[in-house]
Amino acid sequence: MGAEAEVSGGLSFELSRLARTLQSQQVMDLDSDRLLLEVTETATQLLPKVAHGGVTLVVNRRRRTVESVAATGAIPRTLDRLQDELGEGPCLESIWNLYTVRVADYATETRWPAFVAALLAQTPVRSSLSIQLYTNENELGTLNLYSEEANVFTHDVEETALTLAAHAAIGLANARRGDELQSALASRDIIGQAKGILMERFDVPVGAAFTMLTKLSQELNIPLYEVARKLIFEEHPPK
């Protein structure tokens, strides 16, 4: 009883810590890959006999192409590559059909025969759990957890993994917003530098400098940010 209470307390503490991290403003300082790696590493530390973890994200929804991120080692990347090449497997099943996919024992698994044969030949993985991550209509992926033993993903383990996946989805959404904010701030800074160059070169006020940039953007049919970047590059070429 004491050991169970200690494990339960550890799970609760770590889940609370992870939730605070992923839902706080700290995500503004993390790119999405590092943030998701926090989730996969926490999963392998918290969940008994779960040895490997990773996240599969959709790159192109129309072409159904995916990428492997936040892998705790080579094995999750290998399994993502195999599924992408073969066009079948639990991660893809979870992504496209929007549900959790559990494999109790790959030695007796009959779904995705080509993938299962490759997995058994190339890795020590014997069971897995893939949980669909959904943050918005443009963001799809799965949290993938692997064990080198069969029958590891019990109901209790799956419940904890579902909680981790929920935190991952929230954190990913926040990180994406953070990435967008940082990109916007960077663009504003570049445009500001370009306006300063024009103000100094042509002795014009800030409004006129901005008008010059926008007219160039329209005439050249390229984004305002690109006009500003090219101007800065010409003024201060890299050494």
TrEMBL record:
Name of this protein: ANTAR domain-containing protein
Presence of keyword Kinase: yes
Cited Pfam families: ANTAR, GAF_2
Residues covered by the ANTAR domain: 171-232
Source taxonomy: Bacteria, Bacillati, Actinomycetota, Actinomycetes, Mycobacteriales
Keywords, comma-separated and alphabetical: Kinase, Transcription, Transcription regulation, Transferase
Gene Ontology molecular function: any one: kinase activity
Domain of life: Bacteria
